[in-house]
């Protein structure tokens, strides 16, 4: 299967609302956070799924350490 590439508009569709999948982009990769409990409903600490959170994650206490636990679903072109 070819790797999916997400534009800003495509990524925005994966905001976790109304049963949709919740994806976030970080450093050019798109991660699936759908089944991550803190991301229930596509929201986590004031952030919403469906966005590029590359700069936001650097300010989080966990930094990028959580990314290894997530599934990469594609690349982000912005």
UniProtKB/TrEMBL annotation:
<dbReference type="InterPro" id="IPR036400">
    <property type="entry name" value="Cyt_B5-like_heme/steroid_sf"/>
</dbReference>
<protein>
    <submittedName>
        <fullName>Cytochrome B5</fullName>
    </submittedName>
</protein>
<dbReference type="InterPro" id="IPR001199">
    <property type="entry name" value="Cyt_B5-like_heme/steroid-bd"/>
</dbReference>
<dbReference type="Pfam" id="PF00173">
    <property type="entry name" value="Cyt-b5"/>
</dbReference>
<feature type="domain" description="Cytochrome b5 heme-binding">
    <location>
        <begin position="6"/>
        <end position="77"/>
    </location>
</feature>
